Amino acid sequence: MKTFLRLTTIVRPYYLWMALAALIGFATTGSGIGLLVTSGYIIAKASLQPPLGALQLGIIGVRVFGIARGVLRYAERVVSHSTTFRILAKLRLWFYDAIEPLAPARLLYFKSGDLLQRVVDDIQSLENIYTRVLAPPFTALLVSTLMWLLLGTYSLQASLLLLFFHLLAGIAIPLIVITLGKGTQSGIMDLKTDQQVLAIDFLQGIGELKLYGKLPAHLAEMQCNEAKMLRLQHKNACIDGLHESLTGLLMNAAVIAILCALVPTLPKAGTNGIYLTVITFAVMASFEPFLSLPASMKNLEVDVRAGNRLFEILDAKPETAAPPEPASFPENHIIRAENLTFTYPGNHIRSLEKISFTVEPGRHIAIVGPSGAGKSTVTSLLMRFWNLPCGQLSIGGKDIGLFDPEEIRRNIALVSQRTYLFAETIRENLLLAKPDASDDELKDALTAAGLGCFTSRLDEWTGQHGMKLSGGERQRIAIARVLLQKAPIVILDEATANLDPITEKEVTGTLAAICRGNTLIAITHRLKAMERYDRIIVLEKGKISEQGSHDELMRKNGTYRRMWELQHSENPGRENDDA
Q1: Predicted model pTM
Q2: What's the CATH number where 253 sits?
Q3: Are the C-beta atoms of 25 and 18 separated by less than 8 Å?
């Protein structure tokens, strides 16, 4: 109930539109009842062969109700769909506004397929919170109330009987249906989520699945989920059929009970049997709104489930947020770290422990060490992906927490190990760094990044994840983004880790050239062309084991020298190439 109330607050701005659509829906149903009743009246009256004039009122009623039903149905669809699309737009904007600050720190614990399911299907489910959850009970209540009042003017006994059967159709049967189908909708949603995750893993990892012989097992798991989903959907369909049968049974029982109550009163009331026909059709038509009530209850279960899944993300607090009065990025962007200590949530091992260093403007430093030493954690803290719980990190003498995270990312360019390219053109991928860049600027950036051959291919599609390009070309596009961004600080986080030696040497040389005059922090475990860096910091198990220039560290005969000798003794020929 708490989740449902939270969901209703989201659609509160549209209550008037929802009420208007519900009233039009009620009028539409009323017109349908009126059409059926007047048709029955004409048939019953005509059977007595009266003068034609005696049928004029019924004929006019059929025309009025027939036309009104079509017009009102159209108006109800226009208003309800307009309201639904407004709600859907609000939900999507609300969700995206809430999820954007959570990236990347708070989204690390969700699978991409699960997130996609929440963004698409769960929000799509919530768009029906009005049309399939709130409106049907409201319409059924209005129609029932109107029928009780109208029938009560003719016979109180008949009105009470109709009330009894309406309560059975509106409360008892939905409760039975909900009890029988409890968990079915949630089970279908869970299976859809699992299937979404498996499908994305299949599409993105089909090569690895084939390579290691796991493709049949993966497909078998997907087929098993599909079979479970079909069983639940079959159960759902059977329950729907049971509901329709029970509602039809109640409708017929109500007609029989009311006729049994009214027939003995006809001689006493001095009325003819025409009204029995009218009442019979009216009673039958009054059960129409109750047909959608069990579906409304099932949709409520779906919406509550979807709401819980969305609120699970939305209730997560962003790891970093802009301060009330963010500081401007300083021109003198000297970086100082003092006693940095950091532990990832849920991990008892410290990624960084009391490390201190200084990076002066325009200087080039390298942070090296084995995998898991904490190198990339330094990048995450500098980019304000995570807050700093212990120690101090400042830029230009101002604590990094005083800056808006967006301001930090505008002034610090990052080239990571895995450059993400959207399934768009080369132009669109470059415009991420500078949306207002001209074609000449894009071409200059590509040329400077060593992709001069791409200047005539700006509108070429890069493929999913940029798979139409080689690893070196993807990294060079990342370099072109850095050039367009014109950030004073550049961080290279294992930017050449997945490249072949020749491409690595070319990309490293390009990076060194374009970062001349800029502050450069290179995160790497591969010791190539280290003489280019002003200072090298060696991390081991989250601690600084040594630091200095390449020559100084080689003379110390410590960890750095052992790493250097190990890497270069394996490839002595490449050592000469890199020199």
Answers
A1: 0.69
A2: 1.20.1560.10
A3: no
